[in-house]
Amino acid sequence: MLADPFALFDTWFAEARAAEPNDPNAMALATADAAGRPSVRMVLLKGHGPDGFVFYTNRDSRKAGEIAANPYAALLFHWKSLRRQIRIEGPLTLAGDAESDAYFASRSRDSRLGAWASDQSRPLPDRATFEARFAAMDARFAGDDVPRPPHWGGYRLMPGHIEFWQDGAHRLHERRVFVRADDDRWCEGLLYP
Questions:
Q1: Which of 31, 50, 67, 104 has the smallest number of Cβ neighbours within 10 A?
Q2: Model confidence over 60-89: pLDDT tens digits?
Q3: CB within 8 A of 164, min separation 6: which ones?
Q4: Three-state SS for 102?
Q5: Exactly one of 62, 133, 171, 180 is catalytic; which is it?
Q6: Annotated catalytic residue 171
């Protein structure tokens, strides 16, 4: 059994990439606003390692507002075909500009234009309005590279708690938990199913 939660995550994530038919890097991101009201949505993992788990979004979105008010979140990977899930909890920080720029540049041109055109999470009167904004951005950047908008970038969750859940017959599941101690060492244990 692997005693390093990041090595175990790498193993499970590699198996998910081989087995899951669509978006094995999809994860539920749970946040809460300043009053403690929760919200959850799916985002895509775009980087991971001992320095944390990274996703990208519009920093003017609802989720970004909740992160600013309460910079602590939970992630959940659920790989149904493997009958596994991983829960991760910890504080969030902004990913650096260079890292955000590099990832943004790797996206398709249309995805980059969409980041400029979208007021993510805000009311949209009709689809035609968004399509017109997209066309305007396409015209604005015609023949040019599409830079990262100032309101768009990454977040990094630094885990303090990671739980690996494996389905078992008759609901006799296996749950391994890793908790980061104050000295940054990982303490490992099992949980009842």
A1: 50
A2: 999 999 999 999 999 999 999 999 999 999
A3: 5, 8, 9, 12, 84, 86, 175, 176, 177
A4: helix
A5: 171
A6: yes
